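Annotated sample (chain length 268).
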Amino acid sequence: MTSIKIFRPCEELFLNLAKNNSSFGVLLLNSPVKLNNIKLRKIWNQVIKVICYEANIRVLVDGGSECWMNWKENLNKKKDDLYMPHLLTGDFDSISTETLEKLKKINGVQVIHTPDQEETDFTKALEILNDYKEQKKIEIDKIYVLTEIAGRLDHLMANINTLYRSESILPNTSVFLLCSDSFSWLLKPGTYKISIPEILRENKNWCSLVPIGSPAVVTTSGLKWNLDKTKLEFGGLISTSNSYNGSAEVEIETSSCLLWTMSTRGLL
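Output written by the structure step:
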């Protein structure tokens, strides 16, 4: 019997935060994240409330610390606050000296310089995160990466490449790219069910399936334009600008890696 993996990230992260039973981490990349401050605070601060205090990780990556400092300043004006990061990592070419020195002085923040230019800061951050969780004996099954799909195309492609490599860096851990208007993650060969909140179905939000690394033979249900043992590949068909047929779940069977991306318009 084929094992089916179920994904419910929209419900877990946005619709039912208090009842989320997974142990997850948050990683903030160097990009102009456009999520509103209230939602950002809930996502960032929720990390230490899910299972227990010691079982989660918050990571700033290089210039992402500048974004975090701005959130913290804005939230302080509203008498809210952000919890401190556990890790700051990167080659530090996008962080100001002032911010770096401030974070170095905060008790409990581990600052790790990763100058290697053969890997992206995102890839190196996942490697550091994996070392950290092993040292601290922390179990996490998800990483939410706060970023924005905008600006330089090469940066976007580098992030997708890191997603593709993430299984070898963080085994048995799902890595999600969370932007202001979309959620993206990798589906390895296998069968999946993805829960689609009602508001996304009502809005007829877009979704897409893009083969990564090699062609993929894909069968789906729950989409407006379903696939039936259809070969997806660059130079041929890829399933972009798709949507939903009203079903509460989308089921996907794939022979190779796919990038699943879904609009979150209406949720955030």
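Annotation: The chain has two domains: 16-180, 186-263.
Annotation: The radius of gyration is 19 Å.
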